Fold this sequence. Notes:
Blueprint: H1 2-14, E1 17-25, E2 36-39, E3 45-47, E4 53-59, E5 63-69, E6 76-81, E7 87-94
Parallel strand pairs: 1-7
Antiparallel strand pairs: 1-4, 2-3, 2-5, 5-6
Amino acid sequence: xxxxxxxxxxxxxxxxxxxxxxxxxxxxDRPLENVNVIVNDSDIGSTTDKNGxxxxxxxxxxxxxxxxxxxxxxxxxxxxxxxxxxxxxxTISLHKDPIQWKAINVMGLIPSKHSxxxxxxxxxxKTNNTDQETLSAC
Length: 138
């Protein structure tokens, strides 16, 4: 009996916390899909779904830095400290950071009318499935 009680206490200390939340556009308040959510200095991370929601489960660190990044938005980092809770919910707003490029020239190449097109048949196979029934015959 005492052994079971000690085992339950030990597993409660070993289990990690769950961090979940939502990431939105700071200007429009619309959810952002496919935002990278990374726990700094680790290989743990997640991405947001189509509703802007993310979840990172069983995080062993109680004091960590999270980074939120997406192309076209400024990367946002937040220090996260969990005291006594096993689950935390964060709401993050990302600000747009448009990518500015110089002029880009796009050139298309059209094949010459005089160059022959090369086509070849790699393999042909004729099949007859007479033993199978159609769906309408079932």
